[in-house]
């Protein structure tokens, strides 16, 4: 018999303390369990729905292996028809596919990869893959270039480059990307750690760093150095790219994922330790805190109409390393995580818990010895455009009914690689 959901929630203020004390007892329903099922691959690292709901996509990371003097990439990006499961397109991939998103016209996918092959080399990139024939476009390459997102309603594209919070292009067309760019910054700001557009495309949000003076032990200030603290949340209006509001809050320091509701009424942040926080889009003050009682990061996603919030815990199985008497001086081991993940649905007004799903085959592999934070909280959850179904990177790739938790369809990799 499945256990009761172990999800706590906390409100701000003394009334919230009373509600939090009784929250566990108010949830009577047991979680819907999605048992493990047979599939042909590991669980997807990232998933996405096309804007019209016709296609779904999934990103499977992997290493690069040398065979007969050829470098074989063992990951893939795969696209299927949502209604039939028919394969539409697939391309090679490698590293950790931490982001996957369809462009607003549905004709291409943004793929964001983290990969560190060694010697402190960052082979990180965001690229645009056409669905069907055509050439892919490498949008950016560099240490932070995996932090990228597309507007769901236009051709606008945001990416972290340099010390700006982000750089925004009005079009994905290669010739236009060489032209004017919106370089987003505020006083003493530094590059973002999480980016998101609202689903109506009118608001852009970033959790980003700020530079602050370094105080020495003797009480004097360091003159030529400043510390970076990633504890700022800033909202931008996407017509003029002016700042709507900005707040500094230490509870943003460990944020690894960001979601914005349709009208920017609410902003949700995902954190390690099973924590998610909801912020009031009008005041940027914390509204709610949810604790999913997990040791993993939490990925938040709002339904397209902004009426529901989904939270997914992220159990991962990654590479670890230790020094040893080997030619390289290191030994690598994979630690498998057999923990199920929790998918919790809340109504997005008072954020009452509506339903909990437990996905038994949930862990995903990472391909970094050091497991960077971005690799531990990839985009493994997506709502359908109508909000009636949820795509998750569990049991391979699974489409769930958002109301009942029943499996609508399971998508499998083809046997033949691209």
The best one-word shape is globular
Which structural class do you get from the secondary structure elements?
mainly beta
CATH H-level homologous superfamily name: YVTN repeat-like/Quinoprotein amine dehydrogenase
CATH top level class name: Mainly Beta
Total beta strands: 36
| Low-pLDDT stretches | 1-6, 9-28
Description:
There is one protein chain. This protein is mainly β and 418 residues long. The protein has one domain: 7 Propeller (Methylamine Dehydrogenase, Chain H). The protein is 4% helix and 48% strand. It is built from 2 helices and 36 strands. It has helices at 14-26, 174-177, and strands at 8-11, 32-34, 46-49, 55-60, 64-67, 70-73, 75-81, 87-93, 96-102, 108-114, 125-130, 137-141, 148-150, 157-159, 166-169, 182-184, 189-197, 203-215, 221-237, 243-248, 257-260, 266-271, 275-280, 286-291, 298-302, 308-313, 316-317, 319-323, 330-334, 341-347, 353-359, 364-365, 381-383, 389-392, 397-401, 407-411. It has a 5-stranded antiparallel beta sheet. A 5-stranded mixed beta sheet has the order 2-31-30-26-25, with no helix packed on it. Strand 11 and strand 12 (137-141) form a beta hairpin. The chain is globular. Residues 1-6 and 9-28 have low confidence and may be disordered.
């Amino acid at each position: 018999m499945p256990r009761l959901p172990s999800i706590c929630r906390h409100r701000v203020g003394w009334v919230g303390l009373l509600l939090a004390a009784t929250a566990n007892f108010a949830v009577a329903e047991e979680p819907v369990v999605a048992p493990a099922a047979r599939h042909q691959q590991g669980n997807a690292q990232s998933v996405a729905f096309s804007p019209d709901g016709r296609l779904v996509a999934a990103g499977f990371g992997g290493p690069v292996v040398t065979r007969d003097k050829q470098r074989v990439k063992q990951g893939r990006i795969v696209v299927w028809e949502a209604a039939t499961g028919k394969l539409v397109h697939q391309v090679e991939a490698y590293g950790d596919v931490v982001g996957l998103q369809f462009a607003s016209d549905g004709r291409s996918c943004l793929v964001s990869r983290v990969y560190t092959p060694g010697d402190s080399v960052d082979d990180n990139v965001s690229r645009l893959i056409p669905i069907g024939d055509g050439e892919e476009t490498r949008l950016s390459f560099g240490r932070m270039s995996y932090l990228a997102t597309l507007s769901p309603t236009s051709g606008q594209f945001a990416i972290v480059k340099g010390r700006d919070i982000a750089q925004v292009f009005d079009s994905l067309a290669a010739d236009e990307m060489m032209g004017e760019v919106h370089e987003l910054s505020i006083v003493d700001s530094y590059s973002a750690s999480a980016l998101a557009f609202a689903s109506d495309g009118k608001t852009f949000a970033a959790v980003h760093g700020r530079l602050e003076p370094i105080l020495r032990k003797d009480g004097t200030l360091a003159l030529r150095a400043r510390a970076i603290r990633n504890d700022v949340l800033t909202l931008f209006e996407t017509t003029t790219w002016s700042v709507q509001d900005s707040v500094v809050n230490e509870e943003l320091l460990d944020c690894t994922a960001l979601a914005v509701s349709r009208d920017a009424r609410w902003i949700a942040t995902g954190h390690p330790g099973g924590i998610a926080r909801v912020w009031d889009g009008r005041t940027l003050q914390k509204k709610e805190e949810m604790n999913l009682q997990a040791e993993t990061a939490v990925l938040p996603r709002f339904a397209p109409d902004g009426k529901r919030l989904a939270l997914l815990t992220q159990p991962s199985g990654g590479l670890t390393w230790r020094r040893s008497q080997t030619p390289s001086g290191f030994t690598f081991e994979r630690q498998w995580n057999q923990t199920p993940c929790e998918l919790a649905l809340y109504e997005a007004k008072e954020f009452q818990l509506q339903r909990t799903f437990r996905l038994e085959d949930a862990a995903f592999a990472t391909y970094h010895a050091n497991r960077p934070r971005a690799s531990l909280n990839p985009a493994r959850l997506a709502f359908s455009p109508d909000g009636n179904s949820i795509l998750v990177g569990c049991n391979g790739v699974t489409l769930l009914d958002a109301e009942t938790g029943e499996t609508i369809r399971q998508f499998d990799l083809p046997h033949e690689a691209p």
